[in-house]
Amino acid sequence: MIGYTVIFGLACLTLALLLNLWRLLRGPEVADRIVALDTMVINAIAVIVLIGIADANDIYFEAALLLAMVGFVGTVAYCKFILRGDIVE
Amino acid sequence: MMELGLIAEIATSAMIVLGSLLALIGSWGMVRLPTLMERLHGPAKATTLGLGALLVGSVLYYQFYKGQWSAHELLISLFLFITAPIAANMIAKVHLHRLRQDRAKAGPAGTPPAPSEQSDWSTFEAPHSDTPVATSQE
């Protein structure tokens, strides 16, 4: 049963990533694209967690934790660049 | 009486299905809603509830199937719960500044009103005197 639910979850997350990609390409505003990228990182973390369950290997959680950190820093860097024209002042 | 393995399987599966469905709903909300202030709502639910449920499912899976207690998931969810509001706040600030420059479209509720007669939102103003930021620059 776990195998089927993991496949179902991966299908849902694939659809979610495609929706995010649509918003990323469509915009129309810069902030919309930043939200789309941020959500894409969240969904990618979810995909990694699901693969970690399917593979029964806990090394995937290190990757998910790293992606959570890098995704947050990336979002803040984009916002800082739009707000101030510079990332580290 | 049901055996423990079946209950564990049902609980883990329910958490995985719930989490991935909430992630899908969050992304759908981001595509569907009209402007940025509304679009911020969807991913917030996907981050907290969706990934939260997925990570609880993962904890249950490792607990019941491999018999090991794993705390990585709790670290991930703790980190996401701390950073998600900060990221959303920064994105909303970008939107407010772009609204002031007339480079963004206001939502159905219009632009946010000023907090009071004398002052503006803090992201538009210089630091007031006697606040930590203002005193640190001297």
Structure in a nutshell:
The complex is a heterodimer of chains A (89) and B (138). Chain A is mainly α and 89 residues long.
Q: Topology, please?
A:
The complex is a heterodimer of chains A (89) and B (138).
Chain A: H1 2-26, H2 30-55, H3 60-84
Helix pairs in contact in A: 1-2, 2-3
Chain B: H1 4-32, H2 36-39, H3 41-65, H4 72-100, H5 132-136
Helix pairs in contact in B: 1-3, 3-4
Whole-angstrom Rg of chain B:
21 Å
The greatest interface here is: A-B, 50 and 54 residues
- Helix content class of chain A: over 70%
Strand-residue proportion of chain B = under 5%
Instruction: Output the structural class of chain B.
Output: mainly alpha
Q: In CATH, what is the class of chain A?
A: Mainly Alpha
Rg of chain A, Cα atoms, Å: 15 Å
Poorly predicted residue ranges of chain A: none
Quote the beta fraction of chain A: under 5%
Q: SSE order of chain B in H/E notation? A: HHHHH
Structural domain tally of chain A: 1
Count of runs of 4 or more consecutive helical residues of chain B = 5
The number of E-state strands of chain A comes to 0
How far apart, in Å, are the first and last alpha carbons of chain B?
72 Å
Rough outline of chain A: flat
Number of domains of chain B: 1
